[in-house]
Amino acid sequence: MDSQEKRYETMAQVIERVKELAQCEGTPEKEEVEMLKSLFYKLHIQEREQQLKNYLDEGGDPEKYVIQPDTAEAEFKAAMAVVRERRQRLFKEQEAEKLENLKKKQAIIEKIKAMVTSPEAANQQYQEFKQLQQEWKEIKAVPAENNTEIWRSYQLYVEQFYDLLKLNSEAREYDFKKNLEAKSRLCEAAEKLSEEEDAISAFHQLQELHQEYREVGPVAKDLREEIWTRFKAASTIINKRHQQHFEQIRAAEEENLTKKTALCEKAEALLEQECQTSADYEAVTKEIIALQAEWKTIGFAPQKMNVKIFDRFRAACDAFFQKKTQHFKEMKERFADNIAKKQALVEQAVALKDSTDWKQTADKMQALQKEWKEIGMVPKKIGDQLWQDFLGACNHFFEARNAANAGTRNTEKENLQKKCSIIEELESLAEGPAEAIQAKMQELIAKFNEVGHVPFKEKDKVYDSYHAALDKVHKVLNANSQRRRMNNFKQNIKAVAKRGEQAVDNERTRLQRKLDQMKQDLKTYENNLGFLSISSKKGNSLIDEMNRRVEKLKADIELVKQQIKEIG
Questions:
Q1: Within this chain, do residues 55 and 143 fall inside the same structural domain, yes or no?
Q2: Residues 323, 366: contact at Cβ < 8 Å?
Q3: What is the residue range of 195's domain?
Q4: d(C-alpha 341, C-alpha 371), whole Å
Q5: Nearest C-alpha neighbor of 189 from the set 232, 234, 227
Q6: What is the pLDDT of residue 118?
Q7: Do 383 and 531 touch, CB atoms closer than 8 A?
Q8: Nearest by Cα to 383 from 427, 339, 446, 442
């Protein structure tokens, strides 16, 4: 950051400085005006982005975000307009003054030129000549395009006056001496400027020294080249520093442009990325926010491209968030439509639940269940309630039908006894080697599945007991497995530690990545469980299996945490 920029940390400070420039005497420097403008909009953009981030972090709806009125920008524009008007007015005044100064200097040159043609009148004209020199010094700047030529003409005829006319030698030598002293002081001042830290300030001071140098009369002919060479050498150093300063700024700005262009391309690539789910949009959102944070760390691009490249980046970011907003809007609309459909099915099921037309009503209920499965997702809370209401109506009808039609079935009672015996065997599997437990469990599962139906009213109770027993066995197997895995890990980590600290760090990093992935998998499982809506036996088995997976994954997560803790 430029040393001048460091003085301003807030938009209020920038605005205050612009107001000072609007009220001050003289002409505000172009470099400072442009710097203040760029810095204000940099701070302004940062504030806008922070406001949006704070809104989103607080759970705000991107679709409803409204940019707040910015009085600071209006205040800045008003002050800057005054500065621009002042610069334009002063510029015109200065240009008119420069033209008038040019005419005056041209008139002086013509008078000196006329003196050169009358050598015999030199003594009488010397005082007039000195007066013309003084007048020349008092006249300020002329247009830049005329400056060099008018100075050369002036010097030519001044030197001709000294060199060609028979001027009093003593007076001439005295002038030469005074002029040499003056030009030597200017050389010293120019050489001293090499110590000036601010290259721009040194350059501007040098221009003033050059103007003074031009206004000083000639020195002895044999010293003219020497004194000018000295002054020119000091000037070259300052000019080179001034050039290098802006070359460095331009190089840094070009590098910033390259970096910002790369961020634009990344943002545009993310915009084109296909997002199917809300999770996809949230993942891309994190990447966009990361790009925006990186953008803030990069300085200005070249002035002609600074606004364009920002507009490009902002357009890509805005387009993504508009796309995201549209996605969630459509999702809300789908949810609302799905809720209405499921509510209609609930109403139909409730209307049919007390029917005794078993065959026709059963067909209708099954059709309603099929239709239910084809309806998309709804928010979990209201979805759970709708499902409970729908399932309750369906179960009420089918239980009544089964109670009316089934009666007592000896086979189902026998099956009940068989399944209860298998459940008791499962419950007794908690002891013994893990391999034996696993094999026996699989055998009992196969036997259980081979047994036919049980009485309908006992079905849920048997099902719950069966899966409770399975869960108990799985917990024992998982616990044994966790202990074995932890003991193996402790042995392995000792071997890793022998390879050095880097190997330990690598193992810690691997485990942390594994932990992060397992947490993400757990979240996915839990989300899936929330949307499952299957009431058949097969469906209930799927839910239980997923619950076991969730518990297994939670145990694995705890194991990895212990492993990370073991590493230290």
A1: yes
A2: no
A3: 168-272
A4: 9
A5: 234
A6: 67
A7: yes
A8: 339
> What pLDDT is stored for residue 536 in this prediction?
42
Amino acid at 262: A
| Burial class for 40, CB neighbours closer than 10 Å (0-12, 13-18, 19+) | buried
Neighbours of 307 (CB within 10 A): 12
Cα torsion through 78, 79, 85, 86, rounded to 10: 160
Q: Which amino acid would we find at residue 191?
A: E
Cα 453 to Cα 302: distance, rounded to the nearest angstrom: 80
Both 51 and 147 in one domain: the answer is yes
Shared domain check, 93 and 182: no
| 194 and 80 together in one domain | no
Segment 359-384, tens digit of pLDDT: 888 888 889 888 888 887 778 888 88
Tally of domains within the chain: 2
* Cα 96 to Cα 143: distance, rounded to the nearest angstrom: 9
| Residue 70 structure tokens | 């910015």
Domain annotation covers residue 130: yes
From 253, 272, 291, give the residue that closes a domain: 272
Answer whether 265's CB lies under 8 Å from 312's CB: no
What is the DSSP secondary structure assignment for residue 297, as one 8-state letter?
T
Is there a single domain that holds both residue 246 and residue 108? no
In a domain, 36, yes or no: yes
Please give the pLDDT value at position 491.
Answer: 63
Give CA–CA dist 321/342, Å, rounded. Answer: 31
Residue in the structure block whose two tokens are 């910015």: 70
What Cα–Cα distance (Å) separates residue 411 from each residue in 129, 408, 453, 534?
A: 139, 9, 8, 27
pLDDT of residue 3: 47
Q: Which residue has the tokens 């036919």?
A: 452
Q: Are 320 and 292 a contacting pair, CB within 8 Å?
A: no
Closest CA to 118 of 65, 79, 181, 164: 164
Q: Is 470 exposed, middle or buried (CB count within 10 Å of its CB: 0-12, 13-18, 19+)?
A: buried
Q: How far apart (Å, rounded) are the C-alpha atoms in residues 289 and 547? A: 35
Cα angle value 259/290/517 (rounded, 5°): 130
Query: In terms of domains, do 216 and 99 share one?
Result: no
Residue whose pair of structure tokens reads 């100075």 in the numeric block: 151
Token digits of residue 8: 């301003």
Please tell me whether residues 127 and 178 are part of one structural domain. Answer: no
Of 241, 272, 303, which closes a domain? 272
Q: In which residue ranges of the chain is pLDDT below 50?
A: 1, 3, 167, 408, 533-539
Contacts 24+ apart (CB under 8 A), 504-507: 504/567, 507/567
